[in-house]
Backbone:
């Protein structure tokens, strides 16, 4: 089914009829001209995240009891054993884990004993994941509801919705802004266009309660009409000035060069599509509700001149314009919902080239002539040309398309192949028919159709991309937009005909942001030399190699996470090499190599360095017996081949007893109740644990009572969890040699 | 005046667009088509290009 497109009428004929203003590119400066030429002659135109501590750990083994049922005690023991296996290294301190609950027999939720930053918790997760008993570990992330602005008419903005969200009522043409808004920047700020300035070169703006907060001070570039010195086009009684307020562009003169019409409030409408204030309970939400609009008034009654628009573009981008104070709210994005037929004028092209060189993205609508051609400035090189589609994703019946069209965005109206219901989407406007009515009484919202309203949605998404990557280039914006676009639905005009004429496809804000955020992140490797165990007192080199992804590496370096303080001496910048002198004793160091690209995406790698070490050996401790009410004391001792200082880890200390982990002294006064108790003691030199020993302590009833207290009260035996926690230490054989305790 | 004498049309300087681009009004004498005036302008030494300052319109 072929779409009938009207061929654009070449404008030169009509424009030439009145022989008005020309632009002249000279090879010499105007100072060569006679001053008399300056006389005005007639007939001219114109992101900190809260700390967190929840983890999900999936073990390879199920936490089942003997009956085969999920056992919280067993699961808790599994979790605790991770920390007991050795301190979870983090910034020089150990991290303990607490079991919270089980998800499945293998998966459990655990808490670190203190809340940590994301990067620190990630480090803990990585260490846990390295445990051979663990299948995987991950942060128990907090999920948030999809952001839905509370603006009362937001539900009417089908163009901003997730096209697939409502399966019962999908919106194939929607631009998926709501999903994009749920994303966070690397600074953990919601993606909304915050911090980005979008210049709207249009009819100016009117005060509107749903827009005012997002409007910057702009400029009016419309001067007097040279043919009579009046301000007929400007319609504000003056020439260029710092007020971009829209006085109205109504036309009551049928001979003025355009149809008799009421004021359009076109600039206000476009500005609202870009950045109407979001979630203010009022009206609508802009597609980039966090961005700011820089209003640049270049269109008045019956349009506006190329020369003024070119000046407005340069000014918006922060470039110098003669006679105008330089703009300091530099626009990263410039929206041109305007145009005319014909090839790109040199004046336009030079302005486009200049603002692109300054880093600004230029977006223009293709026009509403239902033509298989696009006019200027959309057809200028370097401009992102935007056509329009309907709610059903069909190219709109009015929308111009041709090779060179970059992308399509919602414009509303009827489709070329599938008419649909002609849905429009609303934006900010004013009830005034000629001059603007006073806000807020005259504030209103109207639905319009046209490529004029497609372009600002692309401009808004460009603002989101600029927020995600502040230094993004115009070419990168184009690449991301087109590579993330969705295909036109089957059966619509573009795939039915020459789909390349419609550009890359339908605008998808979420896919665009996701593509930019996920674009080939940097990678890295990290290593230490010599390999573990390193000789004590030796110099160790740490080398990190960062490989850039889509963006260049901007920073890289080493930090120490745990172990004795190491002084890192820079050796080389690329690859990043540092050295330190290892301790003369038993020591375990953890270092992190971090590299960051220009988009602040990080790559991290950890290296553990251990000095050579022999674990201490515990001197065998006999089983202990004490009569109820008497005192018991013994001392654990160990030998260490490296002569390292030895301390002790212990579990199962009975209530009322103490064990000094430094001296190894066990002490129990007035031991009771009667029963059998089991201690588990393991020696450590701070870097490695020696083989643990299980020591049985029998608290016996007095002989006069008939002897033989309870064989096992159970009250003092380590519970299953405790045993599992120490199970990571190699268990020694139990020495059963009894030693008689002496009463005090 | 220089342009007027060389091109045989009335000119008025309006303002600059960029460093080397300027806007003028032009009034052809009698009923001469503007295209002919432009052609004469383009033939002048020191002028790189000449084009009409076309009017752009909203696209709704």
Residues:
């Amino acid at each position: 089914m072929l779409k009938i497109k009207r061929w654009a009428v070449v404008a030169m004929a009509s424009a030439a009829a009145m022989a008005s203003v020309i632009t002249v590119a000279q090879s010499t400066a105007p100072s060569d001209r006679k001053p008399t030429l300056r006389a005005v002659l007639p007939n001219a135109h114109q992101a900190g995240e809260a700390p967190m501590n929840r983890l999900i750990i999936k073990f390879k083994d199920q936490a089942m009891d003997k009956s085969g049922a999920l056992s919280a005690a067993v699961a808790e023991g599994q979790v605790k054993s991770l920390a007991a296996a050795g301190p979870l290294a983090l910034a020089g301190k150990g991290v303990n884990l607490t079991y919270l609950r089980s998800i499945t027999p293998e998966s459990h939720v655990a808490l670190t004993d203190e809340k940590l930053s994301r990067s620190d918790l990630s480090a803990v997760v990585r260490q846990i994941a390295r445990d051979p008993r663990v299948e995987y570990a991950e942060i128990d992330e907090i999920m948030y509801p999809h952001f839905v602005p509370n603006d009362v008419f937001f539900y009417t903005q089908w163009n901003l919705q997730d096209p697939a969200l409502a399966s019962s009522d999908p919106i194939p043409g929607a631009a998926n802004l709501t999903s994009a808004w749920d994303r966070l920047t690397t600074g953990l700020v919601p993606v909304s266009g915050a911090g980005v300035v979008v210049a709207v070169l249009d009819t100016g703006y009117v005060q509107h309660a749903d827009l005012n907060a997002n409007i910057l001070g702009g400029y009016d570039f419309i001067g007097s009409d040279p043919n009579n010195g009046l301000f007929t086009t400007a319609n504000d009684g003056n020439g260029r000035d710092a007020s971009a307020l829209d006085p109205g562009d109504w036309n009551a003169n049928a001979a003025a060069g355009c149809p008799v019409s009421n004021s359009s409030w076109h600039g206000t409408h476009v500005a609202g599509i870009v950045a109407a204030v979001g979630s203010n309970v009022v009206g609508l939400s802009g597609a980039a509700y966090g961005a700011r609009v820089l209003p640049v008034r270049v269109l008045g009654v019956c349009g506006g001149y190329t020369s003024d628009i070119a000046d407005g573009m340069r000014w918006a981008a922060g470039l110098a314009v003669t006679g105008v104070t330089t703009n300091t709210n530099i626009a990263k994005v410039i929206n041109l919902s305007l145009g005319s037929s014909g090839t790109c004028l040199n004046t336009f092209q030079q302005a486009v080239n200049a603002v692109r060189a300054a880093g600004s993205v230029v977006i223009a609508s293709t026009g509403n002539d239902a033509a298989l051609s696009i006019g200027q400035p959309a057809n200028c090189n370097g401009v992102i040309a935007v056509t329009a589609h309907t709610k059903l994703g069909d190219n709109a019946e009015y929308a111009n398309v041709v090779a060179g069209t970059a992308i399509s965005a919602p414009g509303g109206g009827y489709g070329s192949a599938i008419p649909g219901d002609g849905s429009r989407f609303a934006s900010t406007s004013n009830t005034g028919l000629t001059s603007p009515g006073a806000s807020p009484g005259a504030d209103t919202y109207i639905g319009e159709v046209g490529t004029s309203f497609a372009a600002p949605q692309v401009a808004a998404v460009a603002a989101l991309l600029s927020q995600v990557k502040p230094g993004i280039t115009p070419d990168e914006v184009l690449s991301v937009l087109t590579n993330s676009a969705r295909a036109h639905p089957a059966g619509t005009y573009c795939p039915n005909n020459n789909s390349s004429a419609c550009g890359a496809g339908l605008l998808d804000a979420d896919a665009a942001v996701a593509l930019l955020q996920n674009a080939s992140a940097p990678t890295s490797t990290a290593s230490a030399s010599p390999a573990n165990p390193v000789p004590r007192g030796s110099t160790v080199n740490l080398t990190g190699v960062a490989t850039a992804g889509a963006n260049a590496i901007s920073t890289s370096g080493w930090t120490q996470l745990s172990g004795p303080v190491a002084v890192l001496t820079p050796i080389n910048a690329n690859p990043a090499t540092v050295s330190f002198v290892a301790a003369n004793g038993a020591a375990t160091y953890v270092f992190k190599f971090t590299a960051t690209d220009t988009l602040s995406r990080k790559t991290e790698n950890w290296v553990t360095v251990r000095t050579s070490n022999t674990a201490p050996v515990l001197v065998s401790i006999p089983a202990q017996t004490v009569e109820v009410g008497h005192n018991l004391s013994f001392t654990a001792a160990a030998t260490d081949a490296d002569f390292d200082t030895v301390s002790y880890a212990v579990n199962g200390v009975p209530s009322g007893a103490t064990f000094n982990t430094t001296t190894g002294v066990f002490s129990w006064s007035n031991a009771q109740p009667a029963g059998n108790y089991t201690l588990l003691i393991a020696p450590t030199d701070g870097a490695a644990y020696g083989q643990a020993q299980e020591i049985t302590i029998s608290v016996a009833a007095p002989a006069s009572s008939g002897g033989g207290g309870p064989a096992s009260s159970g009250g003092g035996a380590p519970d299953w969890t405790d045993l599992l926690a120490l199970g990571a230490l190699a268990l020694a054989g139990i020495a059963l040699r009894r030693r008689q305790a002496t009463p005090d | 005046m220089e342009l007027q004498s060389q091109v045989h049309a009335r000119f008025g300087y309006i303002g600059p667009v960029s460093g080397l681009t300027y806007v003028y009004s032009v009034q052809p004498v009698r009923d001469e088509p503007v295209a002919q005036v432009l052609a004469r302008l383009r033939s002048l030494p020191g002028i790189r290009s000449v084009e009409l300052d076309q009017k752009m319109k909203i696209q709704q």
